[in-house]
């Protein structure tokens, strides 16, 4: 298994992904994204994840066989290659209304209360826009909660 770092949280991903392969068969490509601290290095060693600091110049192939070409020309091949994505809010609409943002492990999201109302009364955010980490099942549940809260807001609040 190959894991390409995008930041410090990628160490966590590397540890999880290494469980899907044989011991000693996972490679963690730092690619200049960050430098692991002593605790992270120890965790990687414990899990027999090899560390590669040489920059990546290309990712080639297609599933199920991916290859990473390094700056020196060396090629490493993998049955699976993983990259932790980051999120970026695609539309400034809620921000233009004055909704506050928070930053989570994988990007920014709108600050909400327990019922998914943002810092602007009557404006709700759910899913990847209202959670610190994206997940389809969490986003669906979050949307249900926001929908119920928005409906109750429209029916029972006297302030709008």
Please supply descriptive tags for the structure shown above:
single chain; 160 residues; FAD/NAD(P)-binding domain; elongated; 4-stranded parallel β-sheet; alpha/beta
What report would you give on this structure?
With 160 residues, the chain is of the alpha/beta class. The protein is built from 4 helices and 9 strands; from the N terminus they run E-H-E-H-E-E-E-E-E-H-E-E-H. The strands form 3 sheets. The protein has a 4-stranded parallel sheet. A 3-stranded antiparallel sheet has the order 4-5-6, with no helix packed on it. The chain has a two-stranded antiparallel ribbon with strand order 8-9. The longest helix is centred in the C-terminal third of the chain and has 21 residues, at 136-156.
CATH level-3 fold name of the largest domain: FAD/NAD(P)-binding domain
Query: Mind telling me the C-alpha Rg?
Result: 20 Å
Q: What do the pLDDT scores average to?
A: 91
Q: Describe the sheet with the most strands.
A: 4 strands, parallel
Low-confidence stretches: none
Order of helices and strands: EHEHEEEEEHEEH
Named at the architecture level, the CATH assignment of the largest domain is 3-Layer(bba) Sandwich
How many extended strands?
Answer: 9
From the spread of the alpha carbons, the general shape counts as: elongated
What share of the residues lie within helices?
25-40%
Number of helices: 4
């Amino acid at each position: 298994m190959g894991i390409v770092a995008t930041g410090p949280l990628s160490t966590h991903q590397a540890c999880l992904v290494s469980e899907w392969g044989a011991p000693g068969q996972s490679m963690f490509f730092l690619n200049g994204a960050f430098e692991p601290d002593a605790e992270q290095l120890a965790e990687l060693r414990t899990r027999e994840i090899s560390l590669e600091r040489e920059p990546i110049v290309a990712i080639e192939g297609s599933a199920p066989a991916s290859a990473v070409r390094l700056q020196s020309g060396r090629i490493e091949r993998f049955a699976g290659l993983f990259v932790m994505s980051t999120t970026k809010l695609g539309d400034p609409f809620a921000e233009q209304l004055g909704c506050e943002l928070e930053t989570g492990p994988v990007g920014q999201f709108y600050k909400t209360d327990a019922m998914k109302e943002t810092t602007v009364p009557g404006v709700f955010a759910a899913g990847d826009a209202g959670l610190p980490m994206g997940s389809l099942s969490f986003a669906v549940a979050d949307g249900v909660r926001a929908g119920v809260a928005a409906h109750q807001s429209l029916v029972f609040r006297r302030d709008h």
